Amino acid sequence: MTTPLWLILILSFLGIVNTAHLAKHSISKTDVECIGFPKAWCHKVQYSKFSKTLGIPNPHLGLIMYVAIFVLALLFVFGLAPYAYTMIPVALLIIIGFLFSLYFTIIQAFILHAFCTWCIISAVEFTLLAAAILVYGI
């Protein structure tokens, strides 16, 4: 297995853990911990009008994307599905995830003037995923 596949599997798994944590708080309507930032900032991001896309909470969409990336990459690694049906969709999902993360980070910085630790972690994960496919190819 090439380096990018290991990176894709590890980073997408970490993304699953991160977004599952956010989704749990979204479902239970409880505030997420805000490590490194004022607690009010995470609350502001978590309950802003930007916290949903097409009526779906962003953590749920992120979780779906990370799970899809992880499962598709695993299918390819174990030879259960061909490259065209796995890694091309993985690359597209990573690019989409990176662009959404960039958009939401800009929203946090310039509109909300508040950051969510877990959202920033997800943005870093998608940035590293995008860098992996750009540097190593997919």
Automatic annotation (TrEMBL):
This is Vitamin K epoxide reductase domain-containing protein. The chain crosses the membrane at residues 63-81, 88-106, 112-136. It is a multi-pass membrane protein. It is found in: Membrane. It comes from Candidatus Harrisonbacteria bacterium CG10_big_fil_rev_8_21_14_0_10_45_28. Belongs to the VKOR family. InterPro entries: VKOR, VKOR/LTO1, VKOR_sf. The lineage of its organism: Bacteria, Candidatus Harrisoniibacteriota. Keywords: Disulfide bond, Membrane, Oxidoreductase, Quinone, Redox-active center, Transmembrane, Transmembrane helix. It comes from the Bacteria. Residues 1-138 form the Vitamin K epoxide reductase domain. Its main location: membrane. GO terms for cellular component: membrane. GO terms for molecular function: oxidoreductase activity; quinone binding.
